Recover the amino acids of this structure.
């Protein structure tokens, strides 16, 4: 099924009035869990960098989870290296299921330890592209994120409710650098550069700024402006940079956003006169 020309994978998607919905019963079935070799951006004996597709879990969270990015990457590495088995991949960071883009896994314990230390020291370069509601200005956002801001959602301490005393010890300092890239109809294509990397950091910061992601389902309850529908939150991990855990050489990788992200941009481009 497609909605306004985009493949829809979300059975709970709210379809706006006037949207064009096409159901093709003869279309080939979507292969879940499939990962093409082109998704492997870089690999050596220490690590692997992968371009994660939309709709795939990074790792297993529940006992029944399968066909995760970690699982599929292990299978590909075994096939590429013509090996009977591939050791479990070390997890050093994650992407949400509906976020596309660059992720890496460690292939040795030493690499996992060194890369994890780079993440803790905020030495990893992470740049995302996002489509956010409204007109977004360049700014630096710094807050302290907590697991429950007061209504059951993750959020910044003091944003939903007034401060009561000092910052809680479990609050995580979170910094996002936002830069607009292109104005769109009712939205802005932006770059988000992470100084820290907390769970849902970009989604929370943009929502609290009054500019939730297009396609956002969770961090949007405070937004009263006109909403632009999309099958998923429009967020793509475009750039990933780090020091190689064995050689120390600085490496940086970049991948374009997938088709659904680009289709939303094109549908929202201001009409040329």
């Amino acid at each position: 099924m497609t909605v306004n020309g985009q493949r829809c994978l979300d059975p709970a998607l709210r379809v706006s009035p006037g949207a064009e919905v096409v159901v093709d019963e003869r279309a080939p079935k979507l292969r879940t869990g499939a990962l093409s070799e082109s998704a492997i951006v870089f690999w050596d004996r220490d690590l692997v960098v992968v371009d994660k597709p939309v709709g795939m879990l990074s790792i297993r969270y529940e006992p029944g989870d399968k066909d995760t990015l970690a699982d599929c990457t292990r299978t590909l590495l075994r096939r590429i290296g013509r090996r009977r088995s591939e050791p479990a991949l070390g997890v050093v960071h994650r992407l949400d299921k509906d976020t596309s883009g660059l992720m890496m896994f460690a292939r040795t314990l030493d690499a996992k330890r060194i890369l994890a230390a780079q993440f803790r020291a905020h030495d990893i370069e992470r740049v995302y592209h996002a489509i956010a509601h409204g007109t977004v200005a360049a700014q630096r956002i710094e807050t302290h994120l907590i697991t429950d801001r007061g209504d059951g959602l993750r959020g910044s301490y003091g944003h939903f409710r007034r401060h009561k005393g000092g910052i809680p010890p479990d609050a995580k300092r979170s910094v996002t650098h936002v830069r607009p890239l292109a104005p769109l109809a009712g939205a802005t294509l932006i770059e988000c550069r992470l100084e820290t990397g907390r769970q849902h950091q970009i989604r929370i910061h943009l929502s609290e700024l009054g500019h939730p992601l297009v396609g956002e389902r969770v961090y949007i309850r405070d937004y009263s402006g006109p909403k632009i529908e999309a099958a998923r939150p429009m967020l793509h991990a475009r750039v990933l940079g780090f020091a190689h855990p064995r050689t120390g050489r600085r490496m940086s990788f970049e991948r374009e956003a997938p088709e659904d992200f680009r289709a939303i941009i094109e549908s929202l481009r201001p009409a040329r006169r």
